[in-house]
Amino acid sequence: MRTDVTPSPLARQRAAATLVRWLGPWAGLAVPPGVRRTALVLGRTAPGAPPVRASLYEPASGRSLGAYLVSPGLHYAGPDDPRHDRFCRVLAAAGFSVLSPFLDDFLGLRVAPAAIDELALGWRALCDLAAQRRLPRPGVFSISFGSLPALALGAHPEHGPEVGALVLFGGYAEFRAAIRFALSGRAYASDGARVSVPHDPSNAPAVFVNLATLLDVPGDRALLARAWVELCQRTWGRRETWPRARRLALAEPLAARLPAALRGLFWIGTGLEAGGEALLEAALARRPDAFAFAEAPRYAARVRAPVAIVHGRDDDVIPWPEAEKLHAALPHDVDKQVLLTGIYAHNRASVPGAGALAREVAALARVVYALVDGGTGGLGRERAT
After folding, report:
1. E strand or H helix at 230, and its extent?
2. Cβ distance 105 to 288 under 8 Å?
């Protein structure tokens, strides 16, 4: 039988110190030592479905104080993305057993219901491991669009009660608002007020990968979608590609490989030619239920675990007002908190200026202890007593 005992204060402090050491902007891209990564095959969600792979990260000592399931965001490399891999290693260095599955559609930059079942398969595997090692109830940490399957897991009638906590980093509440922002850079608070935030223009092709089945495509949809994915592979995580001229140079060879009939739509989908917003709105009007499964409130309303919502004020992929919308979508009687920080954007960390230093250090401490408690069944315990 699994114990449900939080670690000692000393163990929590050691874990927190490790997280501060490696998650702060002062660590750069350095990777902590003393972590073992193992490749797993979890099985299939259904007959004929692709096998679900996962990476398991553990302290090399073999001793864990808790466990985390990490739900990746939309990324062609999944847990193999160096930033994702590094984060999982940091959690493991702090004393957690960490399992992160490869979500097949997410690898293709598609938001699809299958990701929910694939994450649940990872959850069952992690729960078995935690039970064998007598660890507390595991937590779930999500990154970006990984908040969708994470919230669905938290709302699941069978799995939800076993979730120790949800820690949502850079997640969204309104899917349509998120993809509109990816095209336009316009973000709005819950009251409709326009909010000024940074915007990464390289995300437009990922929006059109998801719209491909809703558009009138004069040719091979899969070929067109692959070209958009390849452009994302060439630009994501590289701020030097934000200027239009640089993205244009990277997209031109891809356009040249496409049949002439597809090139016009390809250029609109890159965001380098006008017309993307109009195509998006027309597609959503034609199929208003197309992304109903991806709207977070339908899951958030049934979550019972404590939730920490962490969001960067300078997030240029999913704007920070989505964090406040997520908070509002959760039940009023669930222990929940929003932690906004100026240290973390979506893909990077930065050292705060002198004027904001004290505030941001305090915010980092709250994030770190939410992580420590979220993976050991303790998040919200102090506020509940």
Report:
1. helix 221-235
2. no
Q: What is the mean pLDDT of residues 127-153?
A: 96
pLDDT above 90 for 304: yes
**Which tokens in the block code for residue 254?**
């891809």
Q: How far is CA 383 from CA 6, 243, 334, 337, 339, in A?
A: 15, 46, 11, 11, 15
Name the 3-class secondary structure at 341: strand
Spatial CA neighbour of 42 closest among 135, 90, 132, 104: 104
**Contact indicator for 136, 377 with CB cutoff of 8 Å:** yes
CB 174 within 8 A of CB 295: yes
Q: Are 57 and 40 within 8 A, CB to CB?
A: no
Tokens of 136: 């507390």
**Which one, of 312, 313, 308, 348, lies nearest residue 326 by Cα?**
308
φ, ψ (nearest 5 deg) of residue 134? 55, 45
CA angle 73, 77, 82 (to 5 degrees): 90
pLDDT at 365: 87
pLDDT at 348: 52
Tally the C-alpha atoms within 13 A of residue 309's C-alpha that lie toward its C-beta: 24
Distance CA 188, CA 203 (A): 18
* Residue of 109, 145, 148, 114 whose CA lies nearest to 269: 109
Which tens digit of pLDDT belongs to each residue from 204-224?
A: 999 999 999 999 999 999 999
How confident is the model at residue 383, as a pLDDT?
A: 44
